[in-house]
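Annex B. Sample input.
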Amino acid sequence: MRNDGMTRLGMWLAISLAAFSARAQEEPDVQATEAAAKDGLDDLERILETEVTSVSRHAERASEAPASVSVVTAEEIRQHGFRTIADAVRMLPGVFVHNDRTFEYVGIRGFGLLGDYNTRVLILLDGHALNNQLAYAQSYLGGDIPVDMSAVERIEVVKGPASAVYGPSAFFGVINVVTRKGVDVEGSLFSGRVDSVFRREGAMVSGRRFANGLDLVASLRGLDAPGLHYEFEERGGSAAGTDYERAGSVYGRLAWKDLSFAFDGLRRVKGLPTAPYGTELGNDGTRYENRQWFALASWQHVFRPDLAVTARLHANEYAVDDFFVYPDFVFLDVERERWQGVELEAHYAPISTTRLQMGATGNWHSASSHSWDTVGSTNIGFRSSFDTQLAYLQAEQRLAEERLRLTAGATLFRHSVFGSRLTPRAGRVASPTPATTLKLLYGEGFRTPTLFERYFDDGDVFVGNPKLHSEIVRTLETSVEHVLFGRARVTVSAHRDSYRDLIHEHEVELDGEPRIHYENDEGTESWGTETSVHAGLGAGWSIRAGHAWSHSESDDGEPHNFPAHVVNGGLRGPIAPGTYLAFAAAWVDHRRRELTDEEAAADPDAVLRVPPYLLV
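Annex B, continued. Sample output.
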């Protein structure tokens, strides 16, 4: 419940060396400002030429990738002052973020299932998957980010299913956080921040490339936030001092020739001010405690200009303890998962216009859950061990003097519990003129039930459902991207998605008591459009804005609880040497909310809505 050593160290480093940080950064910022002033289109040109790796698992221009992909650059992160991944991605078209005062959740193209712990969006750190299969009390987008934002080179967001490359977790999309190399840092950067609600953060990023080619980078981050004060009139009390958050993380990577090694460690403690599940309001002992670490070793070798092979070994652990305090007892859940894996990948280009990519992965998981209370009325849990294998093949062919790119591929995924599934993918990317790109894309995705959804039974609120099976999505998308007057990139897209067997929370009665469990719903059809613009305004200023509209209905004609409209964007530019002005905003349309018992008794057919909100 008190600051851990990692948090205190990060804060001390940031505050005690703030003056040094300002001096160390002054000259580069002045140079960057002057360069931007000479050519206000530099930022747009970087966006147009940005390479992404998350779409096809290899570097390619974002405009040519067979998917809808958006990028937040290091310059945007630094100039806007984004401190979390959620802050950064919420200004991208078709993306919205919501917060339940415990975790940040991301929605893509209007879909964002409340309380799903981001299990339908694959979160990658330099291509390594962070999502665990326990899938309880995880986010990786807010205070529990694994690396400080000052160590981030860019954030890639792929919208739409990517299971044909990554398997089941990439159901709604992929967020890949790409970190800086040591050569990009060449020194140490210290930062600190205190905001109006006394949220205190400190971070250090150090990096260097030595003469022998050894590249090192490390990040240390600490967070201490007291949170907000809440009044709950309907419960007749307040929650002061219960919204606290404390976190610390360390990340490092070293690379030399064909070898690299990365590691990450994270600890986070978050109070629960909303007093869920009928816990005692205002008690600061009700909390989540998360811990995670991973280690990744990689080998990549180019045998010939047309052949490259990559091999990876990784080990991971995730742990969460939750404490729910009631007037007479404390209820505890202890969740653990460990997994190890191996990956092999090969890229072969027999001729300059043809590229073949193939790979295979294997992962072995062991998880456990234990729930009990301090008065001995509940003592229940489960253990689960399973393994997964994935093999994929993708082919790319360039035609018409490389103005046309055809992509086709498929993934065969096997789960020792849920069986096997083949997932195809196809894309056509054409550039009839240097300024115009047309995309026609088809993809399928799936998601296996999480261990939490299938097995979790705490003897009180939740009950498992071993009959759950995988969710399925099929999507068709078309887009037009055009560069206007050499200054602005405008993108217009439309998509149609067909979902089957989405997993939702449902209330059931067990032994005369209401319980929550998960069920596969019937089909859902969704369609929508996105429009975005990213423009250089001159003198180093740039703007991006987007609007997304979506509509979804279940097979019985009922609309789903998703916002129909999302409008977001940002403006930034220099106002003095080394000083920037930045503005970002997001408007999210209303969502429906569940009726309370009193509201349902008064009018069971009433439809109540959470009003739209504007975040600046």
